[in-house]
């Protein structure tokens, strides 16, 4: 059971890193720091979009328009941290 808990928390942490990378890349594209015509940047951006968009879309549908500010990654990260803490606390309660 300990290995399963480790695997779940590691997957959650990796997904949080992917969310942060996606947000940073979107800022870099918005401020013209990186060129999306570059094939490597385009492939990385497409991968990050395909991995994060299914989880972010329902949150974006629930949020009101904030004038171009997208806080859905922050909300998803907070939800993932809550789930991670909930799983660890439940495991500790069940184990002891």
TrEMBL record:
<feature type="transmembrane region" description="Helical">
    <location>
        <begin position="71"/>
        <end position="92"/>
    </location>
</feature>
<dbReference type="InterPro" id="IPR003425">
    <property type="entry name" value="CCB3/YggT"/>
</dbReference>
<feature type="transmembrane region" description="Helical">
    <location>
        <begin position="12"/>
        <end position="34"/>
    </location>
</feature>
<protein>
    <submittedName>
        <fullName>YggT family protein</fullName>
    </submittedName>
</protein>
<keyword id="KW-0472">Membrane</keyword>
<keyword id="KW-0812">Transmembrane</keyword>
<comment type="similarity">
    <text>Belongs to the YggT family.</text>
</comment>
<keyword id="KW-1133">Transmembrane helix</keyword>
<dbReference type="Pfam" id="PF02325">
    <property type="entry name" value="CCB3_YggT"/>
</dbReference>
């Amino acid at each position: 059971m300990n290995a399963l808990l480790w695997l779940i928390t590691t997957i959650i942490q990796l997904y949080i890193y992917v969310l942060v990378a996606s947000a940073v890349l979107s800022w870099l594209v918005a401020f013209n720091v990186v060129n999306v015509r570059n094939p490597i940047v385009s492939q990385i951006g497409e991968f990050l979009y395909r991995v994060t968009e299914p989880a972010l879309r329902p949150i974006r549908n629930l949020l009101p328009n904030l004038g171009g500010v997208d806080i859905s990654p922050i909300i998803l990260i907070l939800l993932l941290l809550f789930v991670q803490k909930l799983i660890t606390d439940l495991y500790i309660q069940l184990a002891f």
